[in-house]
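Please decode residue identities from the backbone states below.
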């Protein structure tokens, strides 16, 4: 009887540990156009310590990222912007965007990305 209870306890503990280790999946809007964009975006996201998977969907322009427990989502936004792709929170540097291949140059959003706001008093990033 004690063996059965101990076995059940071990199985429950292992299951809980696996679920916690899986992390959480977040979706991030990332602008891009083609397969080269997909490769670049996913590589940038996967370069962040704690990211266990990253998949960008060209048709929806959404990046699904599975983050470890201590992984900062903003680090993913910054890494993707660093390689030339705007996200919904961080805008890529103009020079980096301009260096993208022609097929990768997407229509940039007219409004500032939320993380791009310099004037915190007026909340300029909240305006659409």
């Amino acid at each position: 009887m004690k063996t059965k209870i101990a076995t059940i306890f071990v199985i429950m503990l292992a299951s809980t540990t696996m679920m916690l280790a899986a992390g959480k999946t977040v979706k991030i809007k990332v602008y891009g156009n083609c397969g080269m964009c997909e490769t670049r975006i996913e590589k940038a996201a996967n370069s962040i310590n704690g990211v266990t998977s990253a998949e960008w969907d060209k048709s929806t322009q959404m990046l699904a990222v599975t983050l470890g427990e201590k992984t900062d989502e903003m680090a993913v936004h910054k890494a993707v912007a660093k390689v030339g792709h705007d996200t919904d929170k961080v805008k890529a540097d103009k020079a980096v965007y301009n260096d993208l291949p022609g097929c990768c140059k997407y229509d940039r959003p007219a409004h500032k990305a939320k993380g791009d706001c310099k004037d915190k008093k007026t909340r300029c990033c909240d305006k659409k």
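Observation: Residues 24-126 form a domain with the Alpha-Beta Plaits fold (CATH 3.30.70.100).
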